[in-house]
Amino acid sequence: MGDWFRHTIVDTGRLPLFCFFAAMVLGFVSIRFSTRMIRAGVRWWPGNVTPGGLHIHHAVFGIGFMLLGGIVGFSLAPDLAGWRAVAAAVFGLGAALVLDEFALILRLQDVYWSQEGRESVTAVFAACAVTGLLVLGVFPENLTDLIKADDEGGIAGWVAGIALALLNLGLAVVTVLKGKLWTGLIGLFFPILLYAGAIRLARPKAPWARWFYHRPGERWARRLARAQRREKRFHQPVARLGDRLSEIIAGRPS
């Protein structure tokens, strides 16, 4: 395990990224534990910070940690890998605190324990998934192509790399608009998923379905009906499983 960590993380220069990832995961688990203790009314738990009766959301502390970690990380010399890793960990902790209140920031309402508050959990899971792939050395395919084009030089390589990157980015946007967030996100690393996600039917409540499947005509009505059948047969059982996992980690919405 030690050899794997040294060869895969340390020797490749990804130690700061690993520290960012670990701090973000631990920070999210810790803050969710704290908020669940506060929600349960555990009197001895000193979770709430309310000076003068003003409740300070933990996203405020998260912004502070991100500023501290970012400023220190940018100011350190490249050869100070250990201190840069510490700064990355501080930044990761701040990112966890901010993302845990993503839904509040998005809606400018305190929806932390409501159904809309699940958007915060999704944001954290998405950030952890992407960062975890990067830690393991899995990079977006188009980024790899652009790095190769930069190393080899030549206009043709750059044009091909940029064109393919724009194509995959467009497919990712279509996939997300079809209601397949995870397919679009992971597809940036494994482009074959983007082609499948962009071609297949949209989920019935996705923006793509609202724009196209509710048009007059038998063709669109058939597509909407097929999308609804697939949603009931495949997506809803997976969504229920995801909801249970989310409730175990983050607590059940009110």
Automatic annotation (TrEMBL):
Membrane-crossing segments per the record: 15-35, 56-77, 83-108, 120-139, 155-174, 181-202
Coiled coil segments of this chain: none
Keywords: Membrane, Transmembrane, Transmembrane helix
Protein name per UniProt: Integral membrane protein
Organism of origin: Phytohabitans houttuyneae
